[in-house]
Write a structure and sequence with these properties.
2 domains
């Protein structure tokens, strides 16, 4: 075969690979845009399906038939209008049009602003982002914006808080000429005064004409509003100190500014004002100095986000719909290791997309963190998070993750996920804790929503399913719940022991095992954690599809509730625990499922036979407790075993079998490592 033929085949192979890559990227781009479109449609449907009296409440307060902008006199007589006098001046001519299209027009207009914001943010990503990557980033950015609490609040309330952010991004990344940039940012500052903090950023990054234009445009627009509405301007700028005291109380949880946090901590009067001014000045100095440094480093989008976070912190009021700056801070890169690179983006996304009560447990000691989660994220982005410089060797190439070589299997397609292998190093602890907490919160919400609460319809369905399970058990001669329950009740010490075991070991043992594996066996921690997560997910599907009343809540069965006390079947709440959890999440039994997971993990990983035996005692005591206390049927135990088996099975399918010998750590794509004899994984 000639060299020409070799070259021709190599060229054809290269062209074929390039075409395949383009086709995959095209399919991925279509899928991402489809997700963004679905989220947009969902948000619009959520707004328009809300009763008219409950949607766009802020907009209705301003421009509705009886809105503030229709009333003669001051805009701020009722304190319901929270915008600047210039904002009122801009909205006044739109009142008639807004009345006629208060729902559809405003909602779709806001949606278009969100799309424009996502497109500009994707194009503003710092190098070395290619054009192809930016095309993929645009639908991702739009999807994240649609999911974020600020956008959802702006759509639901009818707020204008997206406009200042969009004007700043247009000025910094789209328009040509410093004067045009300054005019846009000055217009944004006239709508939201703390945007003036962008003038120092422009000045100290060499765009002094833009900074001067920002100040001039703001002064001109504010002066115009003062000339047209002198009384309103005096009320806003002098009496209310740039809007302080308008709308909700400043100590409301929705106010995620430093001023709101100090008020929530119980400070007030001159002490609070002095402390707010001192801390605000310190945050502004540190944050703007860092923003200037990152702008000079070529990360202008990050610098803009940091400046916006400073504005959130130092503003007297920063309501939830004004916190988009925090989401933009996700573009910063943090961490030298690949495994640590995801911590900051995940933390930001959780803060700006989930209610604060899902992020932290409802414990009084954690309330300061939970109530000020968005403020803490903004403060961290502005002053503390060590974002990498583009000159750092780790900016483009972080320290790679070590993987174990895939374990040979009978099926060549395993693992199904296109990952190079099982990770040998332990994951980031903060990221794990965040994901575990959010996952458990989602688990609680699904359990509560599975039957629509404890309403009459849910109760009837759950009891009907209980009758079905009892009939199957009688056919199989497994209906031992009543006998075991009454036998245990007759032995006080055994009843007390099983009640204690039921209430105390359900969470403690799995968390202890996860903690030990995280410290001592990181590779096995990932394997075990994934199996537990999949098992819990499958159990949630069971709760949703088959709500089931446990034996203790079956009228006429005569099972004694040894843990919660005697139930009054004439009342649907069945005691105080109904307020905390869904009483009909019995099939499958996660009490037994989690205990079985503990037993399997201990049997597989424990180095001594007596440890393995102790591991098997936990599921034995758990199944005894859940049946004896009347909280589960015997078939619930089988369901728990099924979801655990499915959890381990799916983990194996997606990640491949667990390595039984320790592989020398290698980078992704390196040659397969050689097993180290006599050593176990991790």
């Amino acid at each position: 075969m000639t060299n020409v033929e070799h070259g021709g085949r190599a060229g054809n192979a290269f062209v074929g690979a390039a075409q395949t890559t383009r086709a995959r990227l095209g399919a991925l781009r279509i899928g991402l845009w489809a997700i963004a479109a679905i989220l947009a449609v969902r948000q619009v449907a959520a707004v328009l399906s809300t009763p008219k009296a409950d949607r766009l409440t802020d907009l209705e307060t301003w421009v509705g038939p009886n809105g503030v902008l229709h009333v003669k006199g001051s805009l701020y007589d009722s304190t319901r209008f929270t915008g600047t006098p210039f904002g009122g001046l801009v909205l006044k001519p739109l009142t008639r049009a807004a009345e006629q299209a208060l729902g559809w027009g405003w909602t779709f207009g806001t949606l278009l602003l969100v799309v424009a914001l996502g497109l500009i943010a994707a194009r503003a990503l710092p190098p070395p982002v290619s054009r192809r990557t930016s095309l993929l980033a645009a639908p991702v950015a739009i999807s994240l914006l649609m999911l974020s609490l600020p956008v959802r609040n702006a759509l639901y309330l009818g707020q204008t808080s997206i406009i200042p952010v969009l004007l700043v991004l247009l000025g910094c990344f789209t328009v040509r000429g410093e004067r045009a940039c300054g005019v846009l940012i000055g217009f944004a500052a006239a709508l939201q005064p703390t945007v003036l903090l962008f003038a120092p950023l422009l000045w100290f990054t060499g765009r002094r004409r833009a900074a001067a234009s920002t100040a001039t445009a703001f002064a001109a627009l504010a002066g115009l509003a003062w000339a047209v509405m002198p009384h309103d301007s005096n009320t806003y700028w002098v009496h209310h100190l740039a809007g302080v005291g308008l709308g909700k109380d400043a100590d409301d949880l929705a106010n995620q500014s430093l001023h709101g946090a100090l008020l929530r901590f119980g400070l007030s009067g001159p002490l609070e004002i002095g402390l707010f001014l001192a801390l605000g000045a310190a945050v502004a100095f540190v944050g703007l100095r860092r923003a200037v440094r990152y702008a000079r480093d070529g990360q202008l989008l990050l610098a803009v986000a940091m400046t916006g976070c400073v504005a959130v912190v130092v503003s007297p009021t920063s309501w939830q719909h004004q916190l988009l700056w925090v989401l933009l801070a996700v573009v910063g890169r943090v961490g030298r290791k690949t495994a640590d690179r995801r911590v900051w983006p995940v933390a930001v996304l959780l803060v700006v997309t989930l209610p604060a009560k899902m992020l932290l447990p409802d414990m009084p000691a954690l309330h300061p963190l939970r109530d000020n989660a968005a403020l803490i994220a903004a403060l961290a982005a502005a002053t503390a998070v060590p974002f990498l410089s583009r000159t750092s060797e780790f900016y483009r190439a972080p320290i790679p993750t070590a993987y174990a070589a895939p374990v040979p299997t009978r099926w060549n397609r395993l693992p199904l996920l296109p990952f190079p292998g099982r990770v040998l190093t332990r994951p980031n602890l903060l990221l794990e804790l965040l994901l575990i907490r959010v996952g458990y919160s989602a688990y609680q919400q699904v359990r509560l929503a599975a039957t629509g609460g404890t309403n009459a319809g849910g109760r009837a369905t759950a009891e009907h399913h209980g009758t079905q399970v009892l009939a199957i058990e009688r056919f199989l001669r497994l209906d031992i719940e009543h006998w075991v329950n009454h036998a245990v009740v007759g032995v006080p010490f055994l009843r007390d022991f099983l009640d204690f075991y039921y209430e105390s070991f359900h969470f403690g043992v799995p968390l202890t095992i996860l903690g030990v594996l995280y410290v001592r066996r990181p590779a096995d921690y990932r394997w075990a954690r994934s199996a537990l997560g999949f098992a819990t997910l499958f159990a949630l599907v069971g709760f949703w599809l088959y709500p089931l009343a446990p034996p203790r809540l079956m009228p006429g069965l005569g099972v004694i509730d040894t843990v919660h006390g005697v139930q009054d079947f004439s009342k649907p709440d069945y005691g105080t625990l109904t307020e905390l959890t869904n009483q009909y999440a019995a099939m499958p039994s996660l009490h037994f499922g989690w205990s079985l997971w503990c037993g399997v993990v201990i049997v597989i990983l424990a180095p001594r036979w007596w440890m393995k035996a102790l591991g098997l005692l936990h599921p034995f005591f758990t199944v005894s407790a859940i049946v004896a206390t009347g909280n589960h049927w015997v078939l619930d135990v089988a369901g728990g075993a099924a979801v655990v088996a499915a959890g381990f099975g799916v983990t194996c399918l997606l990640q491949g079998p667990r390595p039984r010998t320790l592989m020398e750590p290698v980078e992704a794509g390196a040659n397969e490592p050689v097993p180290v004899a006599g050593r176990t994984p991790g």
